[in-house]
């Protein structure tokens, strides 16, 4: 299936054999060593020895069976849909002369801007999201960096989300370009999640002009991993009986909430794969990682009981600034925090979220691009509390600061009672909350930009320029 934006058909980087393209689409067989069957691109599951003759899978209607959680429960059918290099794809759609050349959307190199996303032509040079624009230009001198056009991206996003809702009301947007769908009870496409995902991808390509990668699985965690398996413009299906083998082979860094620090701790314990993580008891994981140990235990076994939340539109409000010159002292950072908190207050007021605040957090990005986020329980913004969190974060790394941010997390249960904050407000975003919180103050020192879904794709719009931006909360490439 050709991409309208010139995205190349990549070979699988997991030791997989590629099958020749068929008239109906492109397929790949993934030779998962521990799986009883192989998984394909843009098709349902294929036996390892099968030849591709017809792309039409049998309907995969949900039936009572044993779930990944080990319960005899109704098996859900979840689709995770993620647009490929969304901002760049919209730009290439609107200007075909950009096709085939390295392109990024982000901030200016001379103002210490950061790449929000880039196309696959740029990625071949080593350019990626959250990279400084100056470094990106050094890696790819021919790189064209366009400023973000958020209004245009929001219009495209609305059209995409409307297509999703044609198939099910259970659509949970994570950002402008990413969403979960629960199609367990829909009658569309004979109840086949695989056929629904394929039809959605075709409609988005034909009507909006961008490509979408999809993952189909019995839960959100596995569907999210699957959608990334054959990017760009790919479809990957993991059926219920294949979840165990699929997850066992995953590196632990793929688990939600596992960033650099946690991955390093796990590696020091001799744990690099989910299969190795399974050898640890729940008791031992809880002793080593606290409440997050239970989450690690569940995910390593492919268990994720989170439901798709169509009513969950937004989880945070924040402001951030990237500085032309690094901030070298606590005093300089505190002065900036006193400027940022009133801006945050104004955004909270405009978003109607004053009564919904449950946590205050401070984000610091250091000169070496490492990041620390420190948060505490709070029902209002307060400059002195923000400065105290700032000081705690700065103690972790004796480095200058290139970016400061402050934000609040919204209580979703309170939001349900008082009304939702719109995903598409001019200064609003959407995303998932951080993972488990063990203490009143949580410090995620050195972690990369990872949401609860482990998303590390397209950088938020708030880091693409040196001005203040409303957070677009982790749209992924």
From TrEMBL:
The main location is: cytoplasm
What CDD domains is this protein classified in?
A: PolY_Pol_IV_kappa
Location(s), subcellular: Cytoplasm
**What Enzyme Commission number does this protein have?**
2.7.7.7
Q: What positions are marked as the site Substrate discrimination?
A: 87
Cofactor(s) essential for the protein:
Mg(2+)
Name any one GO molecular function.
magnesium ion binding
Q: Which residues form the UmuC domain?
A: 78-259
Give the co-factor note. Binds 2 magnesium ions per subunit.
Catalytically driven reaction(s): DNA(n) + a 2'-deoxyribonucleoside 5'-triphosphate = DNA(n+1) + diphosphate
Gene Ontology cellular component terms for the protein in this record: cytosol
Binding-site list for Mg(2+): 82, 177
* UniProt keyword list: Cytoplasm, DNA damage, DNA repair, DNA replication, DNA-binding, DNA-directed DNA polymerase, Magnesium, Metal-binding, Mutator protein, Nucleotidyltransferase, Transferase
InterPro entries the UniProt entry points to: DNA/RNA_pol_sf (IPR043502), DNA_pol_Y-fam_lit_finger_sf (IPR036775), DNA_pol_Y-fam_little_finger (IPR017961), DNA_polymerase-Y (IPR050116), DNApol_IV (IPR022880), IMS_HHH_1 (IPR053848), Rev_trsase/Diguanyl_cyclase (IPR043128), UmuC (IPR001126)
- Quote the catalytic residue positions: 178
Name the residue ranges with Acidic residues bias: 442-452
Q: What PANTHER family does the record point to?
A: DNA POLYMERASE KAPPA, DNA REPAIR POLYMERASE UMUC / TRANSFERASE FAMILY MEMBER
Which family does the UniProt entry place this protein in?
Answer: Belongs to the DNA polymerase type-Y family.
Q: What does this protein do?
A: Poorly processive, error-prone DNA polymerase involved in untargeted mutagenesis. Copies undamaged DNA at stalled replication forks, which arise in vivo from mismatched or misaligned primer ends. These misaligned primers can be extended by PolIV. Exhibits no 3'-5' exonuclease (proofreading) activity. May be involved in translesional synthesis, in conjunction with the beta clamp from PolIII.
Instruction: Name it.
Output: DNA polymerase IV
Source organism of the structure: Burkholderia plantarii
**Gene (UniProt):** dinB
